[in-house]
Write a structure and sequence with these properties.
Blueprint lengths: L1 E2 L18 H4 L19 H9 L9 E2 L8 H13 L1
Helix pairs in contact: 2-3
């Protein structure tokens, strides 16, 4: 399962300062991607391209897309969802 959403989401480890905090990296995740809001919808393209580059058998089957009322993050998440939906 992939959890796609902002670092500040309640299910994510809290970040400290302007970037992800030490607790994020102390989890030793092998698929950690750090992105921050940007004024371009293509911000999530690297993540979507990575997932799509995996062999079909290795891609996450279900995906969760936490929703939030954020005019910067919402279009980025929607674009990643569109790309992954095919």
């Amino acid at each position: 399962m992939a959890l796609i959403g902002p670092v500040g989401h309640p299910q994510a480890v809290p970040a400290s300062g302007p970037g992800p905090g030490p607790k994020v990296f102390q989890q030793h995740l092998h698929n950690l991607f750090f992105v921050q809001p940007a004024p371009v919808v293509q911000q999530g393209d690297v993540f979507a391209q990575y997932i799509l580059s995996l062999p079909a058998a290795q891609r996450p089957k279900p995906a969760a897309y936490p929703a939030l009322d954020d005019p910067v993050a919402s279009p980025i998440a929607a674009e990643v969802r569109r790309k992954l939906a095919g």
